[in-house]
Amino acid sequence: MTEILLRGRILTFRDEPLNGEASAETFTYIEDGGLLIRDGKIVAMDDYARLRAGEGASAEVTDHHPHLIMPGFIDCHIHFPQMQVVGSYAGALLEWLDRYTFVEEQKFSNQGHPERIASAFFDELIRHGTTTASVYCSVHRPSVQAFFSEAHRRNMRMVAGKVMMDRNAPPGLLDTPQSGYDDSKALIGEWHGKGRQLYAITPRFAPTSTPEQLEMSGALAREFSDMHVQTHLCENPAEIAFVAELFPWSRDYTQVYEHYELLGPKTLLGHCIHLSDVEIGTIANSGSIAVFCPTSNLFIGSGLFDLARLRASNVRNAIATDIGGGTSYSMLRTLDEGYKILNIQGQRYHPLRSFYQATLGNARALSLEGVVGSFAAGAEADCIVLDARATPAMRIRMETVETLVEELMLMQTMGDDRAIAEVYVAGRPAKSTLVK
């Protein structure tokens, strides 16, 4: 039995703090807290002295005070084959895909390349405090094998899948409706539920799948009804116009996915920027999740995510980095850009609400509440240690910070991987053990 007691200032959420500081019942903050972890699971959270005198009397203590201990960040939309296209110059989505992304993803048929990138990918997640993610692999089975093998070796909770695409891409990136189905089913059998791994049925997006492939994707979703589904929706006006050409029978882009039975409570729809009212209603009625990708939306020039409009119609939402259209692996940088996008539209995004979204909120979006994203008893012990004085500029600013909310806002605005002092994966230190 492995038992450790982490000491520090502890913050975890029980619900979404819609009213900022007035929502004190939605989170727990302990100034001198203890987190008792046994065999990779949360056993108890309390005042440090009380835990040390009771249940945690025999546990090995690691003291992180005065740093803040939170559940690990969760990223709900990220592309592992796109590490080497981050920051590529292009005017808009379709140009960016053709000029850079599709070129890069073809390398994942090369022996050794998927394994090398998978190792680098997980190092970056850990460095930036992300302990769970919903991930797109490439169309090649070896990319998925490399991804899950590395995730399993590190014992990280991941959701991922092989991209399915059978048209409008280079030949080296195309499967067929049947091979996409067969490969996905074989990978599900091998990896779904193995350790902490979960599979996601992953038709890339409507422009790169024929009706036959989307039908096969829907067949998979019906056959494996507990499975996640992930794809892209309404990111760019040219993309939407292309979908209208490819599916002339469809009322709108969203109806394409609805028609093939790909919407539902475990469906993650990346971007969701240019939606009609009818599409918003369809997404809300299905329980699907609209995923906000702020750094990507700004970098590729796709548009501004309208969170208030979606929430007014009860659309579930998540937030994500969207590497490599996104420009940072850091959820802190992602929250900062999300704050700006919403603020420019007159929407307030309180720091408590944004840190909720990056932890428990994203866990709920992934249907993993109680598994990750909080310090509930029995949850998997993925947590991060945040240092609000990590850089000289942050230290000088912290001299005037008086409240937890101000500290969160500072870390969200000025923080990056340097603000992540340590990362625990299933109760084991992961950042300090990275090979530098």
Gist?
The chain is an alpha/beta fold. The chain is 37% helix and 23% strand.
Poorly predicted tracts of residues: none
Helix content: 25-40%
Distance between the termini: 30 Å
Strand proportion, as a percent range, falls in 15-25%
Please provide the count of β strands.
Answer: 16
User: How would you classify the helix and strand content by structural class?
Assistant: alpha/beta
Tally of helical segments: 15
Let me know the average pLDDT: 96
Q: What general outline do the C-alpha atoms trace? A: globular
The main sheet comes to:
9 strands, parallel
Radius of gyration: 21 Å
Characterization of the model:
- The chain contains 15 helices and 16 strands.
- The protein is 37% helix and 23% strand.
- The protein is globular.
- With 436 residues, it is of the alpha/beta class.
- Helix 6 (211-223) links the parallel strand 9 (197-203) and strand 10 (228-233).
- The strands form two sheets. Strands 5, 6, 7, 8, 9, 10, 11, 12 and 13 form a nine-stranded parallel sheet that branches.
- The longest helix has 15 residues, at 113-127.
- The protein has helices at 48-53, 93-105, 113-127, 141-154, 177-191, 211-223, 237-246, 253-259, 277-286, 294-299, 307-312, 331-344, 351-365, 392-398, 404-414, and strands at residues 3-13, 27-38, 41-47, 60-71, 73-79, 130-136, 157-161, 163-164, 197-203, 228-233, 267-271, 289-292, 316-319, 383-386, 420-425, 428-429.
